[in-house]
Design goal:
alpha/beta, 2 domains, single chain, globular, 13 helices
Length: 367
Amino acid sequence: MTDHNAFEHSGPDSSGSLAASGLLAGLGATIPLIAAPMAGGPSTPALVLAAAQAGGLGLLAGGYKSPEQLAQQIAEVRAGISAFGVNLFGVNLFAPNPVPIDKDAFVEYTQSLRELAARYNLSLNEVDALEDDDEWEAKVDMLVNDPVPVVSFTFGLPPAEAVGRLRKAGSLVFQTVTNRNEAERAAALGVDGLVVQSYKAGGHSGTLTPATPVEQVPLAELLDRVRSRVQLPIWAAGGVSTPADVREALAHGAEAAVVGSVLLRSPESGASKPYKAALADTSRTETIVTTAFSGRPARALRNAFVDRFHGAAPSGYPAIHHLTSPIRKAAAAANDPESINIWAGTGYRDATEEPAADILRGLAGGS
């Protein structure tokens, strides 16, 4: 049985690299780094395999995929990961926590998008807002029947019954939280650990209350707050992009650091060509938390879409996500960075075109 009170982390090994500890070491990791699950394309089997190659853990993004698509990606990872002598990967799922859309607001926002949609020869349906649960139950059933080492949840809290089934199947279960209250609620479900995410994270916030702005608490302080209430292993996320950030997170009780934006320009990232180019564009200098793309708060680089629609965007997830998705996909295909979601955390400037394994080793302090 893993000691959930064992927060101490190992110091550098003989190469100067930080060593994995706790649950992550028990899975076979050698460095305390995790490649974040970035839904919508950036997280690929290749990125997960690169994390394993570096000695860390990669998480496949189960969001926006059918169970069949997710199963195929799991199979790809399993086929390649044996070369590293470990079974070191996981899957992240969106737990249902819908933000209902006001019908009138949906119609109004749809109308405001028509001109942009027409640029890509798209027509938008302003009558039917698509509200779904991302095939939640089918994905949980699949992971119970064909277990993976780690399952993590974000957006909402899964039922305790689902947590129990996954743990019984042999998976470690982690829950994304953004404050102490959420951490206590997650611990009550019987999860194995927490992903503690700060406000600096790129992409969607894991907040359980998306209508309320996430408090702007530095990650180190947030870790201290959570640890004062909940004695579970913690993986720290949000704005981690340098070796110093990793060491600070570990110094404040995290077992590992979760990184996403810093990997987006790597060859293994599935981010689109205009997405990667935008991250390297020195004229883009500001990230903003907006509901313009999905109806749920997410941090992105400013572009024309944000400037035009940020103030007009209603809350409403997943309805707004489904509404804008065809526009974003068409813009990416047209190599247009002004109409895509450029998800980026505050440390996005540290993203490079290096191989992902090298980036992760560097963050761990190794050569």
